Amino acid sequence: MTGQTAKIASPCECGTMAMRQVNQFMLHDELWWDSEFSCGSCGTYLCEHASPGAAPADVREALLAAHGPVKLRLISPVPSLVPALKVFREATAASLTRARELVEELSHDGVVGTLPVMEFLKARLQTRAVPVDIDR
Question: Residue 107: helix, strand or coil by DSSP?
Answer without folding.
Answer: helix
